[in-house]
Amino acid sequence: TNNPKAVIVIFGATGGDLANRKLYPSIYRLYRNGKLSDNFAVIGVARRPWTNEVFRDKVKESIENFNDTNIDPDEFASHFHYNPFDIQDLEHYEDLDKLINELDDKYEAEGNRLFYFSMAPNFFGTLAANLKSEGLTTTKGWTRLVIEKPFGHDFKSAKELNKQIRETFTEDQIYRIDHYLGKEMVQNIEVIRFANALFEPLWNNQYISNIQITSSEVLGVEERGRYYDGAGALKDMMQNHMLQMLALIAMDPPIKLTPEEIRSEKVKVLRALRVMNEDEVDKYFVRGQYDKGIVNGEELPSYREGNGVDPESNTETFVAAKLMIDNFRWAGGVPFYIRTGKRMKEKSTEIVVEFKDLPMNLYYGKEHETKSNLLVIHVQPHEGITLHVNAKKGDYNASSTPITLSYDNKAGDKMNTPEAYEILLHDCMRGDSTNFTHWDEVAFSWKFIDVITNAWSKKKADFPNYNTGSNGPKEADQLLLNDGFEWWDVT
Ligand code: BG6
């Protein structure tokens, strides 16, 4: 078969819940769905002195609820091996290399090695350097690196991090994960836009009045207070996931569907983002932090009362922004409104494209209910597309009323659509980097975000300023009202 063969080495296999919640289940699903041959092994690497048995038990626990009788969990888990490891100790690299070779022979993985860095980024430099100096990156097959966010915390640190890993891996070998790019409906943006004669001709400043991208969450920061308090919504969501969706929505059609062409079009969008001066930031950006609130009869604490959070924290848990893209397609004033926040009313990610009104519409007036045309891309939890148009009301008059045309991606036999991590892991093993972020994308997005971070760091915010269970601070609504728009509540 053409299914990928590889030894996957996961650094940080015991820590964090990413591995348990996402990685092992994804590998399992690939295996179950026949997307992975039997020619694979996973090596869990971390400090703790675990044994293969302990590791395999964890892996089996993480896939427990699949309950698939066709797959023997022990058989699956037998592909997993554990290797206790000290990043500083060069001898450990030698042992790891031996184990990789051994498993490579056993599973006939053709010398392909996938290194997965799932640990604190301050170790990435040392780890990458040692992997190279000890010869682990020289093999007869391919070598690739998958790297988790956060990729730096500003442009400078991202550049430094990039420099360190580039000492060992070429850009082609680096797969920077942004799990939003593995979401089915995010990948669908390009198809909807470029496979339909209906949208692309209208997709510009002449026919679109504004675009809204919202990703709201119900959960607070939960157990991640320590990480989150040093990051905030701007760095945690906006710099990566939100700007990635923006790039896909705003980009020009690529010449071909190759990773190079697609990513270079996305880079052009990020390059065209209007960079603001620090003193303009308040006009374009709103920050928020959640206060306590009652949800389903349960009183939930404010952000500042959370675990690992500074009681006077100035960290934002909500951002709303108005972005302008200064290129031929969007110049002249098509605002892109973006918002994301924790502890909001619902868990939902949605993109709303609002079209301009007709220059002359006969169906205006008090007997008509004509509304703007909207194209809504529902990313999650519901996956689908809705087109809002106007049609005749079913009565004696020729008056108009809004109707919707909907497509539900999960309808029919599609219940089993793959998960983001599963798709991305599969892509990486096939050598397709389309849905991973190129260094240039990371660089331009940080440069844009840095201005906001700097402006905000100089002024203490008036936090908390929105209630748990709400849609964020009222300033976020004002941001649109100032332009004569409103956030569309389309769910
Ligand atoms: C992660 C952020 O990248 O994305 C989290 O670090 C956030 O804070 C998560 O909760 C949201 O992802 P999803 O797939 O649940 O929308």
TrEMBL record:
NADP(+) binds at R47, D86, I87, K149. It is an enzyme of class 1 (oxidoreductase). NCBIfam families: zwf (TIGR00871). The active site is at H241. One of its GO terms (molecular function) is glucose-6-phosphate dehydrogenase activity. The lineage of its organism: Bacteria, Bacillati, Bacillota, Bacilli, Bacillales. PANTHER family: GLUCOSE-6-PHOSPHATE 1-DEHYDROGENASE, GLUCOSE-6-PHOSPHATE 1-DEHYDROGENASE G6PD. GO terms for cellular component: cytosol. Residues 9-188 form the Glucose-6-phosphate dehydrogenase NAD-binding domain. Belongs to the glucose-6-phosphate dehydrogenase family. Pathway: Carbohydrate degradation; pentose phosphate pathway; D-ribulose 5-phosphate from D-glucose 6-phosphate (oxidative stage): step 1/3. The keyword NADP applies. The gene is zwf. This is Glucose-6-phosphate 1-dehydrogenase. Keywords: Carbohydrate metabolism, Glucose metabolism, NADP, Oxidoreductase. It holds the Pfam family G6PD_N. It catalyses: D-glucose 6-phosphate + NADP(+) = 6-phospho-D-glucono-1,5-lactone + NADPH + H(+). Residues 191-488 form the Glucose-6-phosphate dehydrogenase C-terminal domain. Its EC number is 1.1.1.49. Substrate binds at H179, K183, E217, D236, K342, K347. It comes from Gracilibacillus boraciitolerans JCM 21714. Transmembrane segments: none annotated. Catalyzes the oxidation of glucose 6-phosphate to 6-phosphogluconolactone.
